[in-house]
Structure formats: C-alpha cells, structure tokens
Design a protein that fits this description.
The complex is a heterodimer of chains A (212) and B (259). Helices cover 41% and strands 14% of the residues of chain A. Chain A has helices at 23-29, 45-55, 70-83, 98-110, 128-145, 179-189, 199-211, and strands at 13-14, 17-18, 30-33, 116-120, 148-152, 165-169, 172-177. In chain A, the strands form three sheets. In chain A, strands 3-4-5 form a three-stranded parallel sheet. In chain A, helix 2 (45-55) packs parallel to helix 4, helix 3 packs across helix 4 (98-110) and helix 6 (179-189) packs across helix 7. The radius of gyration of chain A is 20 Å and the shape is globular. The mean pLDDT of chain A is 79. By secondary structure, chain B is an all-alpha fold. Chain B has one domain. Chain B has helices at 2-19, 22-51, 55-77, 79-84, 87-92, 98-126, 133-159, 164-181, 193-201, 203-215, 222-225, 230-257.
Chain lengths: 212, 259
C-alpha cells in the first residue's frame, strides 16, 4: 500500500491514486512510521527533518539550518513544541531514547502534510509514559489535520478509539467494522466464548474459533 | 527541480557522514600512502632503470585511479548498510525517482573520495611528483569521471548483494584482482592473451589508463606508459557508466520491491 512492495493481487488506491501506476503521487500523500525506526543516527534531529523536507520537494536544498527559509524554521519549531522535542532538535539522534526517536519520526513525516499516516506498531518497545503521550499527540494531530491514520497493532486497546477495525488472522480478514459493531456481532455468534467488553476479548474469541 | 534537490541532499548526507567519522578519513589516507611509499618506492629502486620511466610517478597515478574508483564503489555499496539500519526505507518511500537516489548516492560518494584524495596529493608533492598547476587542473575533471565510474560499478555490485557481510566478503574479491589487471602498480603493456581479456573487462583499467593518458600527454614517456588514447578510455568509461547505472538500478529496485 505504501508502494514499497509489489501487491499480490487486486487494486490499491490511496488518496485516489493507484499505488503502482501513480506511485510518486501516492508517496507524496502518505506518511509512514515503520516498525523499526528509519532515522539516520549519524545526523541530528533537525538534519533528519531537513533531509526529509528536501527529499519531498517542499524546500530547496540547503547545507545548514540557518540558511533554510523562515517558514521551515517556524514549522519545525512548532511541531517540535507539540511533541516536546524543542530542546533536542540539534542533538545527535544517537543520544535519543526509543520514545524520542518515534516522536521524531512522526514529526518528520508530518512536515509534508500527508493525507494518510501509516503507523506500523508505533508503540512497540515504548514505556507507558511515552506511549500515552504519543497517543495524546496523535489524537490532537488527527483532530487538527483531519488526516486518516492507518494503524497496525497488537495492543488492541489502542484500536478501541478507531473508526474502522479490521482483524487479520493468517493473512485473511476475519472481522471488519467499527469496534462496537465487531463486538455486537460477536456477542450473538460466540455467546459462550465471548465474555469481556473489550476488543481484545472479541479478538481472542475470533482467533480461538479459527484455531479449532 | 525537486529531483535535483533530492540528489543534492542525498549526496550532502554522505559528505556530512564523512566529516563526522574521523577514523575513516585517517584510514583512507594510510592505505594509499603504504602503496605509493613502500611498493612504489621499492619498485622504483629496483626496476626503474630497466623500464625507462619513473616508477614512483607511475604508481602514484595508478594508486590515485584505484583509490578513487574503489572508494566510491565501496561507498555506494554502503546503501546496503542503510537498508539494514532501515534508513533506506525513508529514502525509498519519498516521491523521487529511483535513478535520483542512485545518482545522489554516486555523487555523494564521489565527493567523499575526492576529499580523501587531498591527502594523497599532498603526499605526492612531498615526494616530488613533477606536476604543474595547470596539469593539476586538467586532472580534476578526470578524477571526477573516475569517481562516477567507480560509483556506477558499486551500484551494479550492490544490486547483486543483499547483506553488508556478504558485501564485505565479495568486494575485496572483485576489487583486488583489478589492482593487477588494471596495472595500478605493475606495467601491463604486455600480457598473455588470457590475462589480456580479463584486463580489458576490468573497469578500473580504463580509469587508471585515463589518468595516466592525461598526465603523460605530450611527455616523452607517453608511449611507454599509456595503453590507449584518453578519447578511447572516456568512450569506454561512458558506456560502462550508462550500462552499470541502468542495469544496476533496475535490478536493485526490482529486488527491493520483491523483498
């Protein structure tokens, strides 16, 4: 979906563009946070961001922060403030904790104002505090920019607030709909096994069923 | 326009990385100095009177060609390292052409090689390689051409490797024989047919010969040292460059998508 790998079958459209024929337009409309941080550890946080904005053609090349346009500086400082990274912008990324790296990646991908933000298990390996603040931040961003967030996760409580949930088991979609819908249908089908009120319980019921 | 900016920033990143890695700068200087100083020096003392030209100068320009070629090639291969650190994903999901990525990487590593060359040139002045300022200036574009060829060669190698470890093992194996096939420190005017074919297949041969062709141009040693005319070498290098970049990028992109 993110144009990195070829599809196996069917058609993929992101923001109205075909992911194979219009891959460059698709890449412009999405931001991606991979499971493994994709930051250059040899550079500072700001250099990573600058690299990104120039790659995306938002600003022309410039070898130093001080030579970048005012609008760039304002944008970076603004985003850094929201994420609480404003004091670490010019520090080497090597010194960052896991949570800070995540935040930096999100900050970086927001600079090109994506329509869809892909998050591949963004909170894996984060401490509870970073996890909480990350989600708070993502919710604000979602509200402010009205962007779609596409999340894959194993922590199902993170999916409770989603508009649409899709449960995949062995590469096949086994349940689809809003969290409350999924819970509702399950209540009727799996009356005995399905006991708790959360998505996680629903998930366990479905997966358990397919294993039998 | 944005493709050009992207190429520039990819190249600039490599340059920044070099400046932050002091150990790499020092190591890159020691190796060529060993070759020129020890090998060139000993050959000079023992052979020079027989071949009829200054062996130290011969080796000096050979080592320059070899250094630029292999250091740019191995630099480009560092894209594998990026891939293992998952940084390449950041480059590969950006909306720029795959060719821009490869060209940017080649340019960046060329720049890195040229910076490393400064030390060798200073050493050349100290040991008294006879060269004029205008001679130096004509050589600068030649140096750049050789870096580009080395970079393109790196792309081709890169496209066929998947891990840094295999790169570390394979790379010396494909570079080291070229030292001798390209005549970096040994004359290859006369070679047995089998070695002659291999030598003509070695991209480094054309790089080294081009430098010598330009340096010895108009000098009495020209016919004794140089194998082919600079025009011929440039032509071969241009064809190799285009071939390597096109095939290399194609294979590399294909492999990335089907990973």
């Amino acid at each position: 979906m993110t144009t990195l790998l070829s599809k196996t079958s069917g058609e993929v459209k992101i923001n109205g563009f075909d992911s194979e024929k219009d891959s460059s337009k698709v890449r412009k409309s999405v931001g991606i946070i991979f499971q493994n941080p994709s930051i250059d550890l040899n550079l500072s946080a700001e250099e990573n961001i600058r690299f990104h904005t120039i790659l995306y053609g938002i600003y022309p090349f410039s070898p130093a922060y001080s030579l970048m346009p005012e609008s760039y500086k304002k944008k970076v400082q603004g985003l850094a403030k929201v994420l609480g990274l404003e004091n670490d912008l010019f520090k080497p990324v090597k010194t960052f904790s896991g949570g800070m790296k995540r935040k930096l990646e999100i900050l970086r991908s927001l600079t090109h104002e994506p329509k869809v933000l892909f998050l591949d298990e963004p909170t894996v390996g984060l401490d509870p505090l970073s996890r909480k603040s990350l989600w708070q931040y993502l919710k604000t961003v979602k509200k402010e920019t009205r962007m779609t967030i596409f999340l894959t996760t194993h922590y199902l409580e993170e999916a409770e607030d989603a508009d649409q949930v899709c449960i995949i088991n062995h590469g096949k979609i086994v349940a689809e709909g809003s969290p409350s819908q999924i819970k509702k249908t399950l209540k009727t089908t799996y009356e005995k096994k399905y006991q708790g009120p959360s998505l996680e319980d629903a998930y366990l019921a479905i997966i358990g069923d397919s294993h039998e | 326009m944005s493709e050009l900016n992207a190429i520039l920033i990819i190249a600039y990143r490599d340059f920044l990385k070099l400046l932050r890695d002091r150990a790499r700068i020092i190591i890159s200087l020691i190796f060529p100095l060993l070759f020129i100083g020890i090998l060139g020096g000993s050959l000079q003392a023992n052979l020079s009177s027989d071949v009829g030209y200054d062996f130290l100068v011969f080796t000096f320009f050979g080592v320059i060609g070899q250094t630029l070629f292999s250091s740019t090639a191995s630099g480009v291969i560092s894209l594998i390292e990026d891939r293992q650190n998952d940084f390449s994903q950041e480059i590969f999901i950006s909306p720029i052409s795959r060719y821009s990525i490869v060209i940017g990487k080649i340019m960046g590593e060329s720049l890195v090689s040229l910076v490393q060359l400064i030390g060798i040139l200073i050493f050349g002045f100290i040991i008294g390689v006879p060269i004029t300022l205008s001679g130096m200036l004509t050589l600068i574009p030649v140096f750049l051409i050789i870096c580009l060829l080395g970079g393109a060669f790196g792309v081709l190698v890169l496209a066929n490797l998947s891990q840094q470890r295999s790169a570390n093992q394979v790379f010396p194996f494909i570079i080291f024989p070229q030292f001798f096939l390209a005549g970096v420190f040994s004359p290859i005017k006369v070679l047995p047919p089998f070695l002659d074919i291999l030598s003509r297949l070695s991209p480094m041969r054309y790089a080294v010969d081009l430098i010598r062709g330009v340096y010895y141009w108009g000098k009495p040693e020209y016919s004794k040292v140089v194998l082919e005319s600079p025009t011929y070498n440039i032509l071969v290098i241009a064809l190799m460059f285009l071939g390597f970049v096109t095939i290399g990028t194609y294979l590399f992109v294909k492999k990335e998508r089907n990973r």
